[in-house]
Amino acid sequence: MSLRQLSVQPSQPSQPQQTSGGSSSHSTRAPSTPVGLGASCTTNSCRLSWSPVSGAAGYNLYRAVSSGGAYSKINSSPIAAAAYTDIGLTTSTTFYYKISAVGSGGESALSTPVAGTTQLDFGTHVYLFDPSMDPASIQSTMDTVFATQESAEFSPERYALLFKPGSYQVNGRVGFYTQVSGLGQNPGDATSRGAWMRMPSGAMPTPPVILAFR
């Protein structure tokens, strides 16, 4: 009986499927660079927010003390939301921020810088508001001050609510020993379109008004 010699061809490695653009379906790209980065600061913190990026798993935020300086990442792990509060900052100091998006394909390029300046610290009972701040946050602070001073006719506590130039949509109730002032060169530089009442305990409130701070 004779044996036949069989010829065995080596198998070829499988090739990745090609997309219509000619690139491998297994390749991934880094997300796009985030846009719309903005900063709103208090005496010792800056609140950063930006537009979400499609396909991003998180974001990295970088800070420097000059626009062209060395930027250092301030988050230990990717930020999940499109907002972040940088705390523990020095008062009356300008900081510069850049943001990047992180995905399975890596990290995007850094955004253009945005500046945020922390406010002066006038003391624990002086509040300085800016039009870029969240109106709900301003309203909450004002309500807390009123609740403290509403019946404080003989209290040693004194409060000041200072508004930077701009327009505010807040409702104010003013108790005892509370100063409300609008800042700016002209009397109408800071305005409120909400209802304001001077209403100490036991007193009749004045009618609500649209107020141009003085």
**Computed structural class:** mainly beta
If you average the pLDDT, what whole number results?
82
Main sheet, how many strands, which sense, barrel?
5 strands, antiparallel
How many angstroms does the end-to-end distance come to? 116 Å
Radius of gyration: 29 Å
Shape: elongated
Give start-end ranges of low-pLDDT stretches.
10-26, 201-214
How many domains in all? 2
Strand elements, count: 16
SSE order: EEEEEEEEEHEEEEEEE
Helix content: under 10%
Secondary-structure topology with pairs:
Elements: E1 38-41, E2 45-49, E3 58-64, E4 72-73, E5 83-87, E6 94-103, E7 106-107, E8 114-117, E9 126-129, H1 135-149, E10 159-163, E11 166-168, E12 172-174, E13 178-182, E14 190-192, E15 196-198, E16 211-212
Description:
Residues 10-26 and 201-214 have low confidence and may be disordered. The strands form five sheets. Strands 3, 4, 6, 7 and 8 form a five-stranded antiparallel β-sheet that branches. Strands 1-2-5 form a three-stranded antiparallel β-sheet, with no helix packed on it. A three-stranded parallel β-sheet has the order 9-10-13, with helices on one face. The protein is elongated and about 65 Å long. It has two domains: 38-117, Immunoglobulin-like (Sandwich), CATH 2.60.40; 126-212, no CATH class. By secondary structure, the chain is mainly beta. It has one helix at 135-149, and strands at 38-41, 45-49, 58-64, 72-73, 83-87, 94-103, 106-107, 114-117, 126-129, 159-163, 166-168, 172-174, 178-182, 190-192, 196-198, 211-212. It has one helix and 16 strands. Helix content is 7%, strand content 31%. Strand 1 (38-41) and strand 2 (45-49) form a beta hairpin.
